[in-house]
Amino acid sequence: MSEATARRRGALARFWRDYRAQRAGLYGAAILAAAVLAALVTPLVTDPAGLDVTRATGEKMAPPSPEFPLGTDESGRSILLTILWGSRVSLLIGFLSALLSMVIGTVVGITAGHFRGWPSAVLMRITDWFLVLPSLVLALVLAAILGGGTSTIVLAIGVTSWASTARLIRAQTLAVEARPYVERSRVLGGGHWHVMTRHVLPNVAPLVLANTTLTVASAIVTESTLAFLGADSGQASWGSMLRGSYDWGAVTSGAWWYVLPPGLCIVAVVLAFTLCGRALEAVLNPRLRGVS
Amino acid sequence: MAAPTEIEPAAGPAAGPGERGGPPGARRGLLRYALAKLGGALLSVGMVVVATFFLFRLIPGDPAVAYTRDVPLTPDQLDLLRRQMGLDRPLPEQFLDFVLRALRGDLGTSYEYRRPVAELIGERLGPTLLLVGTGLVVAVTLGLWQGTRAAWNHGGRLDRFSTGISLTLWSVPTFWLGLLLLMVFAAGVGPVPGIFPTRGMEDVDAPDGPLYLLHVAHHLVLPCVTLVAVVYAQYLVVMRSSLLDEIGQDYVTTARAKGLRDAEVRRRHAVPNALLPTVTLVFLHIGLVVQGAVTTETVYSWPGLGLLFYEAIKGPDFAVMQGTFMVLCVAVIVMNTLADVLYHVLDPRVGSA
């Protein structure tokens, strides 16, 4: 057991050394750390009362000033404050829906790769169906039917975005199951559950990690798009701020301070996740190939 | 949405082992392949219909009330409506009725517009086809051209620049890009006036005759640019990686060894072979274009299917939502199947073309 722990620690150290060599990945990780820190610290240092329309103190649609560094919105709320609180919603929904998507994708992928014959055929049929359909359209319909709320949005994004993960994991599962040690385990009496959880899952886990990072990126984009198209969670997020800026004519009246900051935040965070995901892939993929 | 890094032949247009024989066998193989694909597409369409039926039965509350929303109705009228919608009959019967109606092209009635949904969709189809068609042509041309240049000088400045651009564009939400373009080019920045209209496909005082085309084209510019920016990066990445695959092939080395000029190797040998999988993937990912169209049409109030869908979501007008959803999904499935079969017809390695 201790030998395994030492080996794992060694692998982790090797991973970190390889990851550090990826410059873009480091930048991405730094941006992410800053964003998550800001989202966590916000409730400790700011007062959410400023988000209340009736208690907003600023002038309406005022340009940036010392008091409001990023200006105010249509009801006189500070844009900076809304962005900070909105980051909590955007990041939370992004993480949770990517998690849901990853769980569905991994379970379907491993099951479809492990069991041959008709269960696999049926699962892949469903996966292809989800892969082909315009997922945003499906997510919008789901959100509209189930009604607002954070959990609805998470469900809508998660249920519509797992298909590419499932395909990836299935291919990897097929490769892992072809290895001799899996056959040995099966001959020694290892059941389906044992093979799937003890041999396949640990082998596909690195791939799942890299893929999830990319999924979070697209989930944040989807969340903002859903919010812009009217399916929001009821709380201020970066997407719903942009919805507000569009509804209140900030775009046509030149109120750039209402349009630029939320969008730039989305782009920065999404780009950071994408850079991290690509760096993870670059680090983990050659090793995956090296093992087989 | 798939990351640009993981574009691969997802629905695998790979030739099976049985389809590599001589011409007659290959033709039979193609027919079998096309029939199998057609069967798959029909199954997918069936799944869309089933999913739609059950999804829209999940709406909380009384469907009759939900579908008519703000229209004030007496209890008697609601009762009549429930009977018309078939809500008093058993579920299997309702389902059969739903399928038969959909087959006849009857997608129900919108109480928001007080008109049949199919009629509304027919009206909005033209503008969407115009926007998506123009956008696709521009995006494919631009993407393939840039992708070719990036792959041919891979590792160079242009390549790194294109990869950076496509990564960034992928991180930018479509609607935000639309808002930015709207702010800069339609509303104007400071003293610079806007040069494009902010919304719609035509103004009330639209001119007649050939000038009308110019008028619409003027309105089309910004939505089209937005749509292109979102999808072209994908095509660039696909073309780049598919050409990079070809560059390593033996026949390219042979072509060079024959003494062909670099541009000729590229134009006559590598690009035609790289084009095939790329064009197929473009059509396999048509769902992304549909998504782009929904957001773009919303931002610019372009009177197409996407805007109709958005308005239905906002309503919510469930009858229109249901109809548009089915039409969009079926359109995507049809395009995918066409791409699959076309790939098989065009691929010289299958030997039937």
From TrEMBL, chain A:
Pfam family, one: BPD_transp_1
Topology of this chain in the membrane: Multi-pass membrane protein
GO terms under cellular component: plasma membrane
Domain ABC transmembrane type-1 span(s) in chain numbering: 87-277
S-adenosyl-L-methionine recorded as keyword: no
Segments traversing the membrane: 24-45, 89-110, 131-157, 255-280
Keywords (A to Z) from UniProt: Cell membrane, Membrane, Transmembrane, Transmembrane helix, Transport
Alphabetical GO biological process terms: transmembrane transport
Domain of life where this protein originates: Bacteria
Similarity comment: Belongs to the binding-protein-dependent transport system permease family.
UniProt name for this protein: Peptide/nickel transport system permease protein
Organism: Planomonospora venezuelensis
Automatic annotation (TrEMBL), chain B:
Residue ranges occupied by any ABC transmembrane type-1 domain in the UniProt entry: 125-339
GO cellular component, one term: plasma membrane
Keywords: Cell membrane, Membrane, Transmembrane, Transmembrane helix, Transport
Gene3D superfamilies: MetI-like
PROSITE patterns: ABC_TM1
Biased composition (Low complexity): 1-17
Transmembrane spans: 38-59, 125-146, 167-192, 212-233, 274-294, 325-346
Subcellular location: Cell membrane
Membrane topology classification: Multi-pass membrane protein
InterPro entries: BPD_transp_1_N (IPR045621), MetI-like (IPR000515), MetI-like_sf (IPR035906)
Classification via SUPFAM superfamilies: MetI-like
GO biological process: transmembrane transport
Record protein name field: Peptide/nickel transport system permease protein
Native source organism of the sequence: Planomonospora venezuelensis
